[in-house]
Amino acid sequence: MYGGATHGSDSERTPLIGQRHNRDRLIFARTRSTSAPASVAARMAVSVPRRSVLLGVDVGTGSARAGLFDEKGKLLGFASSPIQIWKEGDCIEQSSTDIWNAVCTSVKSACSLANVDGKEVVGIGFAATCSLVAIDDDGSPVTVSWSGDSRRNVIVWMDHRAVKQAEKINASKSPVLLYCGGSVSPEMEPPKGHILNVVKGFEGDVERSSQRSPIKVYTVVSVLWKNIQIAVGWRMSHRPQLDGHLGIGLSDTQEIALPHKGDAIKLELLWVKENLKESWSMAFRWMDLSDWLSYRATGDDTRSLCTTVCKWTYLGHAHLEQLNEKDSRDMEACGWDDEFWEEIGLGDLIDGHHAKIGRSVAFPGHPLGSGLTPAAAKARNFELGLRAGTPVGTSLIDAHAGGVGVMESVPASDSKSGAADDEGICHRMVLVCGTSTCHMAVSRSKLFIPGVWGPFWSGIRVDNAFAAFVFSAMVPHYWLTEGGQSATGALLDYIVENHIAFPHFANRAASQGTTVFGLLNKMLESMVQERNSPFLSALTKDLHILPDFHGNRSPVGDPLSKGMVCGLTLDASEKQLALLYLATVQAIAYGTRHIVQHCNAHGHKVCLGSAIERVCENALSLLYVYQMPMLASIFSFVLSVMGSKIDTLIACGGLSKNSLYIQEHADIIGYPIYLPRENESVLLGAAILGAVAAKKFPSLHEAMKALSAPGQVIYPSKDPNVKKYHDAKYKIFRDLHEKQLSYRSIMAEALP
């Protein structure tokens, strides 16, 4: 956890919860002590209302956390337990056994602290990092480590062992790279797959596949022009059908399978097969960590549409036919492309009806199996201590859970005036700030943004009424794009903890009963007066940092990018430590500003009407597929001018509790930042999955609206000098990466 500023501690809330719970227990005791008949006493006892508590579990990089929420989304209590991690060069590994033990510890501790009986928990949801878990046919760990240690069966999300595999895929120039921002990262899966769309234009049919055929510019232009004519004609006449054509020539009842970042496999799977052949032969299931958690809790191997669409090769459109299914066991995974797996040399993963990668796939929040198994529920032997049969919802990736937990946390009075409820959400970007930071935004149309992952989806169906129903990997009915910074909280820890003044400073913070970051914030405030600085941010006028210490995920998409610090001296004092900390916070904020501006420059949200939107998105896709970057850039610019933009930020995660961190972001980006009522938004997002699984709400979006609530709003500084200062530093920030590319080129020439 990061930061010194919070909005009320759990210790302040817990006594009230405990008092109410104890009062209920006293009623039971008095009832049993009266002389009334046993049957009357029993009826009186039964009449005492029992709380309905929702449990969210989040497994991050360094700890497992559990949060308990009431039916209004208020946090009752939470607890965390550390997770062991092994780091050897680019290889970063964990143990699923250790992770589950940490989950059980945190759940039981949270229940104890909040005075919640396990029987009061009515729904459970899991969220976790995008780490890869390997287990054998009886669920035992299978090592993924060079060491051969069987405990180490989890490849952590930030592992960079697969850099060569990523470079190989990027060199292929596959058109599906469009769905992950133009290139893949070692932290994600390589987008590969097949595309077969028929484009009908004045020049005839043009078949598009993964093997691109030559196409002339005038053919593309004529195709686009015909589609614009079709769309405008429909808009003017309100015709329900368009002679069997939609967008780029789709039949009015045709379902299409589009490429996306998930048209891929785990890069780590390729690495394991090439380097750990014994482990490859032993592994019976390969699972994303969040899917493994729900499997461990329920025994149901159903995978999440969130993980499979965003991180694997799953074609989610097939699930539109299964929206009304009630039993996850009936939701057969019909979106795997067997031919694809065969082509890339991993055909053995489709054996046993895809048993190794998922026989069934369900929407987030879908109830799994028969709920919590007796083995996972029992109070002894280090399990959860909950009621067997408690509903468990299909899981989410942790950043997506954060988005679910906060996306509806903007007050209605602050929503865009005149904007419909389903349009206002498209103006927002969620910052899930932890070890890394994910930047989540949704839109009604699919948008292709270089250097930004997505658009993610679960499917699209076109019917006779010319209506499209789109289900994203995070919020139903929306397309999701995701930017990110691979190291934010981790970078702050690295900068601060590796400074020579840190040990003494940490001891001083502990003696004062505060955090290291809290004490650093106070020191910076005092330095403003000491150094006669016009404002706090100006303390770093001679110190500039490029925060790419673990590569650049977005929007540059350069895993080889390195961190840079300009302005170091021989000063090793605590005050110099404070300046390095502030400059790092600012550098992270400049990175977020770069992502936001980049998304807006590429038309993040377009309000042109559904027909024209679909033409535009297909046109942009066509230009990228046939490698016409200049035309694509022009088209993106036109869309950005015509569309609305992201102008509201919502922050959650550990770093969002740091007041200086959030204020610097607001000042640097120039937008207000909304903080949710509950700090633990990822846990709330996971708990929302449990609420949906328990049938407390009819849909995920309805649960989001009911359980999310706004908190504090942090506004940018109104001082024009602050804006001028950050504009200047942002220019230097952008220049640092350009300089690094130049240096890299010079050295490449020296060492061919």
TrEMBL record:
Q: Which InterPro entries match?
A: ATPase_NBD (IPR043129), FGGY_C (IPR018485), FGGY_N (IPR018484), FGGY_RbtK-like (IPR006003)
Q: Which UniProt keywords apply?
A: Kinase, Transferase
MF terms per GO, please?
D-ribulokinase activity
What the entry lists under CDD domains is as follows:
ASKHA_NBD_FGGY_D-RBK
Q: Where is the Carbohydrate kinase FGGY C-terminal domain?
A: 430-694
Can you list the GO cellular component terms from the UniProt entry?
Answer: cytoplasm
Q: Which Gene3D superfamilies match?
A: 1.20.58.2240, 3.30.420.40
**Gene Ontology BP annotations:** pentose metabolic process
| Span of domain Carbohydrate kinase FGGY N-terminal | 54-172
> Which family is this sequence assigned to?
Belongs to the FGGY kinase family.
What name has this protein been given in UniProt? Answer: FGGY carbohydrate kinase domain-containing protein
